[in-house]
Write a structure and sequence with these properties.
The protein is of the alpha/beta class and 286 residues long. It is 41% helix and 16% strand. An eight-stranded mixed sheet has the order 1-2-4-3-5-6-7-8, sandwiched between helices. The longest helix has 16 residues, at 262-277. The relative contact order is 0.15.
């Protein structure tokens, strides 16, 4: 359950990125983006399932998971959007399918709308995309990051565990919760946790929110019906702003749809991807 490795590295403009690919070379590429405070680990079940017929790329954003963390690091959504564009170039992926969760949704949207990132299709899973966002506790942590960094390690660990656990509706397996919390512990992880919250700024979604009508890609918006972090109504609102976007509510899932209902999410993604396969030879669909 906890086995997951990213053996490849990429020296991005915001620090070393760890990444991996699953599936046979030459197959249609799919890139998965995680959100905060998570890592590519949340995609493991979905990634392995998609890799049966696709080549799947997974990566940890700078400052997250197994990727580099350091003092003064720029881990803002603006930086992550640039890094994702860099990564696509490094991997030689001209028009992959992109599947993005939470803040990863913002990263994918910014890379596409601001940095010229080209995708064959885009699937957004409970993304941070519409203002206002950020719970009162999230804002409190960000405004007083330096204070919270001074918490004794046991209290910091308890805070992160409760925070991460609240993203799941049915609850996370203890081993999964441990794995999601572990990158945020220790001398590097603890400040990195508060750093990424302190740099979360709504202006990074404000800069693109009015441009969603420009998205000409086939787009799927999936949303956990029991998401208490971002209500499902936001999903319907987002889908209405993107031309011809398909909205797919997923019963029994909270914000961490990949953990709560991986089979249902995988089925929704495969249906969407198969539809795009049928359009590949048709002009004007890319």
């Amino acid at each position: 359950m906890t086995e997951w490795d990213l053996p490849e590295t990429f020296p991005s403009s915001s620090g070393e990125v760890r990444w991996n690919r699953l599936g046979q070379p030459g197959r249609q590429p799919v890139v998965l983006l995680h959100g905060t405070p998570f890592s590519s680990y949340v995609w493991r079940a979905v990634a392995r399932s998609l890799a049966r017929e696709r080549q799947v790329y997974v990566w940890d954003m700078p400052g997250y998971g197994l990727s580099e963390k350091y003092a003064g690091q720029d881990v803002s959504l603006a930086a992550q959007g640039r890094v994702f564009t860099e990564l696509l170039g490094h991997l030689g992926l001209a028009e992959p399918h992109v599947v993005a969760h939470d803040f990863g949704g913002t990263v994918a949207l910014r890379a596409h709308l601001l940095h010229g990132g080209r995708y064959r299709a885009l699937a957004l899973v409970d993304p941070v995309a519409l203002a206002p966002w950020g719970s009162p506790s999230f804002r409190l942590l960000g405004e007083h990051a330096k204070v919270f960094e001074q918490l004794p390690p046991p209290l910091h660990r308890a805070l992160v565990r409760e925070y991460v656990a609240s993203a799941s509706s049915p609850g996370l397996h203890p081993a999964v919760l441990d794995r999601l919390v572990q990158p945020w512990l220790g001398d590097l992880g603890r400040p990195a946790f508060y750093r990424q919250i302190a740099q979360a700024d709504q202006r990074h979604t404000d800069e693109v929110q009015d441009r969603y009508a420009e998205i000409g890609l086939p787009t799927l918006v999936c949303w956990g019906e029991d998401d208490i972090w971002i209500p499902v109504a936001k999903g319907r609102e987002l889908a209405a702003l993107i031309p011809d976007a398909r909205f797919e509510p997923i019963a029994g899932a909270g914000h961490l749809v990949q953990e709560d209902t991986p089979a249902e999410l995988t089925a929704a993604l495969l249906t969407f991807l198969h539809r795009q396969d049928g359009r590949q030879e048709q002009p004007g669909q890319h």
